[in-house]
């Protein structure tokens, strides 16, 4: 079977669990706990987290905090069988924000899976997938050597079930894997797993993986939308850069967004909303990269002004295109950028 790639990011090397991710996974676990009659404070114990932040769009947690929440939940219900399975059912496409909608609007199932694997850091998965394919099979192998021993079974069941749940949202009727291999002995709830996954899992295996018929990847998705898909992919890039602390990459993507003046001049609040973060977070990320929204906008305006003037657009027209109320403030800004006026810079007719 030819390898087609390993997902970058989460867990691809033996690393700690201090990286930050969306807090939505903790919110889902907390809501599950409430439905089980448990106190959220008990589930959040020893994490430093508070339910007061659940409505905060900037609510983020470390992977270690999320693992602690899962440990607390298991400790509070030691006799619960199939905990990972029932948690996984709570995850839907909408749980993943722009990534979920990007998958939903993908041309085919294969495109959706590729997008999900590319931006695995934007999911709540702990199971790192390694993907391979040949003429007959598409295999997703889980690198479970990076999972904590005490939560390995729960995380594997949760992440596989969440994947099935997401695929069911993508395709009416879902899909049926040809095989699922799992480590460890057959659990008491194996029958429930088989019904949920639509295949009888095989246990005590040396590798953890699932396989799909390769022809399924070409299945068109009913809600494919090229324009929406492109916007969602762009947002995923921004969020991934911000999540990984790559301020330079974030600044580059904002610079590219600001260069398109055909859609007007956005405010920082509008750009932050487009990428599902607060303006405060956006400002902080750009400061960490050694720049600011104002500087990026000024740079974009300067480059656009030079191009538009070269193309023969009038000074008033350029000013209007770049969001200035009138020509005078644009002329002053242009002189501060270049040391000359727009008319002089244009040269003789």
Calculate the terminal CA-CA distance, rounded to whole Å.
Answer: 65 Å
Percent range for β-strand residues: 5-15%
- Sheet with the most strands, sense and barrel status: 5 strands, antiparallel
Q: What radius of gyration results from the CA coordinates?
A: 25 Å
Quickly give the CATH architecture of the largest domain. Alpha-Beta Complex
Give the overall silhouette: elongated
Count the domains.
Answer: 2
CATH class of the largest domain: Alpha Beta
What fraction, in percent, of the residue positions are helical? 40-55%
> Order of strands side by side in the largest beta sheet?
1-4-5-7-6
The total count of helices amounts to 16
CATH topology descriptor of the largest domain = H-NOX domain
Backbone structural class: alpha+beta
Mean pLDDT: 85
Give the SSE order as H and E letters.
Answer: EEHHEHHHHEEHEHEHHHHHHHH
Topology, number of strands:
7
Low-confidence stretches: 1-15
Which helices and strands appear, and what pairs or packs with what?
Blueprint: E1 2-6, E2 20-22, H1 24-35, H2 40-43, E3 60-62, H3 63-76, H4 83-88, H5 97-104, H6 109-118, E4 129-133, E5 137-142, H7 152-170, E6 179-181, H8 190-197, E7 208-213, H9 226-243, H10 247-258, H11 268-274, H12 279-288, H13 293-310, H14 315-321, H15 327-338, H16 342-346
Antiparallel strand pairs: 1-4, 2-3, 4-5, 5-7, 6-7
Helix pairs in contact: 1-3, 5-6, 5-9, 9-10, 10-12, 10-13, 11-12, 14-15
Description:
This protein has 349 residues and is α+β, with helices and mostly antiparallel strands. It has 2 domains: 2-218, Alpha-Beta Complex (H-NOX domain); 245-346, Arc Repressor Mutant, subunit A. Helix content is 49%, strand content 9%. It is built from 16 helices and 7 strands. The strands form 2 sheets. A 5-stranded antiparallel β-sheet has the order 1-4-5-7-6, with no helix packed on it. The model is unreliable at 1-15 (pLDDT under 50).
């Amino acid at each position: 079977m030819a390898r087609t790639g390993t997902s970058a990011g989460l867990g691809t090397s033996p690393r700690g669990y201090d990286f930050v991710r969306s807090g939505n996974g903790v919110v889902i676990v907390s809501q599950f706990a409430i439905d089980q009659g448990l106190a959220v404070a008990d589930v959040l114990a020893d994490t430093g987290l508070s339910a007061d932040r659940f409505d905060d769009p900037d609510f983020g947690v470390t992977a270690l905090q999320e693992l602690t929440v899962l440990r607390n939940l298991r400790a509070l219900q030691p006799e619960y069988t199939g905990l990972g399975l029932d948690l996984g059912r709570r995850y839907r496409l909408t749980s993943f924000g722009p990534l979920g909608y990007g998958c939903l609007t993908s041309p085919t199932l294969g495109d959706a899976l590729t997008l999900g694997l590319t931006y695995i850091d934007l999911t709540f998965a702990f199971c790192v997938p390694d993907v391979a394919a040949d003429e007959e099979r598409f295999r997703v192998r889980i690198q479970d050597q990076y999972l904590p021993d005490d939560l390995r079974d729960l995380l594997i069941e949760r992440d596989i079930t969440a994947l099935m749940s997401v695929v069911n949202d993508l395709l009416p009727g879902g899909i049926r894997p040809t095989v699922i291999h799992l480590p460890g002995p057959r659990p008491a709830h194996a029958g429930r797993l088989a019904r949920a996954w639509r295949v009888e899992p095989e246990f005590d295996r040396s590798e953890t993986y699932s396989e799909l018929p390769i022809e399924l990847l070409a299945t068109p998705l009913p809600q494919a939308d090229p324009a929406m898909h492109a916007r969602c992919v762009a947002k995923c890039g921004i969020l991934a850069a911000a999540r990984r602390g790559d301020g330079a990459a974030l600044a580059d993507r904002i610079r590219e967004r600001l260069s398109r003046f055909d859609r007007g001049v956005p405010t920082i609040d509008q750009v932050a909303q487009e990428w599902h973060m607060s303006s405060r977070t956006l400002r902080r990320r750009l400061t960490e990269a050694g720049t600011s929204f104002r500087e990026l906008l000024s740079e974009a305006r300067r480059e656009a002004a030079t191009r538009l003037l070269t193309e023969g657009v009038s000074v008033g027209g350029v000013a209007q295109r770049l969001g200035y109320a009138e020509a005078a403030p644009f002329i002053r800004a242009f002189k501060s950028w270049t040391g000359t006026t727009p008319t002089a810079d244009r040269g003789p007719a």
